[in-house]
Amino acid sequence: MKSRTHSLEPVVFNTFNAIVMIALGIVTLYPFLNTIAVSFNAGNDTLRGGIYLWPRIWTWQNYNAVFAGGTIFHAFWVSVARTLIATVLSLFLTSMLAYTISRKEYVFRQPITIIVVLTMYFNAGLIPNYFLIKDLHLLNHFAVYVVPGLISAFNMIVIRTYMQTLPEGLIESAKVDGAGDFRTFFSIILPLCQPVLATVALFVAVGQWNSWFDTFLYASSKLNLSTLQYELMKLLSSASLSNSNPSVANGNNPAAINMVTPLSIRASITIVASLPILVVYPFLQKYFVHGLQLGGVKE
């Protein structure tokens, strides 16, 4: 009787686990699939409700309204440029700082750590930050997207914590062989930190890609520095105003925006903004799994 009970336990657990995972998958995927359906449905028909997983009246008009005028394409490449440049530089500088303060022989590692961590809890505020950016001559300059976020306290702590789990013997062996700190960092530490660096890279890239408020504050007067998220935000605002005055929305193509509604344009904007991240994420997912496996092994 006991052996029969033990033989049923895996079956019961696997069945329950499968049901829970399927339910979580449905709950997770449904909002995104519903957004896709709304984005391809006629705007006036969407107001009736009842759109779930399939459009009732198919149309490309929502996406035509998003891409009307051509500014979206230039803004897309600006967003790509800021995301790539900021992610690479932030990873490089943050990981170098993390390696420095992870070394026990560095006498100033504790004070520097405290100073960096304090920036996570205290902020001067929006107006002082604006005047700082202005005094640094970064207004209406592409560098305003990159320089302020070069070092992240949170990401530095994440990378430093991961580096502290690496075997100390590897670094000692490198020093015995005559390798300096730079050689040790580039030849040993960075290759071993690929999982955590990929994780942090995704954090930085998603933050850079979704950012629009810094464009509004520091570069709104320069059209060639407008980012994708900022253009989409302006389009959404115009679509909302079109309820009372349709001709206000999207001056480049008023006729196109008249055929859509704020709900349908919001769905289209969500898909356009999230698609690049969805394309990149599968390539980084393996590093998340690998990082969890390494993090569970102690020397």
TrEMBL record:
Compartmental location: Cell membrane
Limits of the ABC transmembrane type-1 domain: 76-284
One GO CC annotation: plasma membrane
Gene3D superfamilies found in the cross-reference section: MetI-like
Record key words, sorted: Cell membrane, Membrane, Transmembrane, Transmembrane helix, Transport
Transmembrane regions listed in the UniProt entry: 12-33, 76-99, 111-131, 143-163, 184-206, 263-284
Membrane topology: Multi-pass membrane protein
One Pfam family matching this protein: BPD_transp_1
One BP annotation, GO: transmembrane transport
Family note: Belongs to the binding-protein-dependent transport system permease family.
This protein's name: Carbohydrate ABC transporter permease
Organism per entry: Paenibacillus rhizovicinus
Organism taxonomic ancestry: Bacteria, Bacillati, Bacillota, Bacilli, Bacillales
